[in-house]
Specification:
about 240 residues, alpha/beta, TIM Barrel, 2 domains, five-stranded parallel beta sheet, 5 strands, globular, metal-binding
């Protein structure tokens, strides 16, 4: 249940918070409201008997949280076994990497889960300490910042080192300039709005993977967003990709 912050539910009676983006949201709500967590996890497990499903936990900041949640899942799995109800015993469990805390311990988290999904909107605003909804500082919200992209690369590398896969959602996944870098960084799955799919699909098909790897390596070594984007734009012009 990824609620809280900018995702309010009127019937949940959220307490008023000074900074809801850093407050009671997502997995923190679920861990405090165990009855909600139980209902949701049991429902997902039951539905997994009828099709391919995965469980993903949002707003994770520690290994302790993941281990506690996995214990909860095992409890509900056993409940369903005792009730004689079918579910996918091998259902994949992953985390949404959307905090710098999760990104910096990705090598440890990768040992605990089956996959990562990088949430670039929150990861960007938390890494850069920029409220993307604040017009006074919105110009500082730069998903293509070297600091954000290097964290993303760290997460991808950590997952691959453990034989796991990494996907991405958020604005960056549908950005054609970012696509080239993300390909070169080894991103396994892109999640985006349907309208972006044809354009991004064309870029992926027309890009040489080895060229993208070289571009990503060079781009991540740049000290500023402007210098990084100059490299990317030059690559696009030379390869006439977009």
């Amino acid at each position: 249940m990824d609620i809280g912050g900018d995702k309010e539910l009127p019937y949940m009676n959220f307490p008023k918070e000074e900074n809801p983006f850093l407050g009671w949201r997502a997995i923190r709500i679920a861990m405090d409201r165990r009855e909600i967590l139980r209902d949701q996890l049991r429902a997902i497990l039951r539905a997994s008997a009828f099709g391919k499903l995965r469980i993903m936990f949002p707003m994770i900041i520690s290994v302790e949280e993941v281990r506690a949640l996995r214990k909860e899942i095992e409890i509900y799995k056993q409940e369903l076994r005792d009730e004689g109800k079918a579910f996918d015993e091998s259902i994949e469990i992953g985390v949404m990497v959307e905090t710098p805390a999760a990104a910096t311990i990705a090598r440890h988290l990768a040992k605990e889960v089956d996959f990562f999904s990088i949430g670039t909107n929150d990861l960007t605003q938390y890494t850069l300490a920029v409220d993307r909804g604040n017009d006074m500082i919105s110009h500082l919200y730069q998903p293509m910042s070297p600091s954000v992209l290097n964290l993303i690369k760290q997460v991808i590398d950590a997952s691959h080192a453990e034989g796991k896969w990494t996907g991405m959602c958020g604005e960056l996944a549908g950005d054609e300039r970012a696509t080239l870098l993300l390909l070169g960084m080894g991103l396994d799955e892109f999640s985006m709005s349907a309208i972006s799919i044809p354009r991004i699909k064309k870029i992926i098909r027309n890009t040489n993977f080895e060229d993208a790897k070289v571009l990503a390596e060079q781009a991540l070594a740049q000290p500023t967003t402007d210098e990084l984007m100059t490299l990317v734009n030059k690559f696009i012009e030379e390869k006439t990709i977009c």
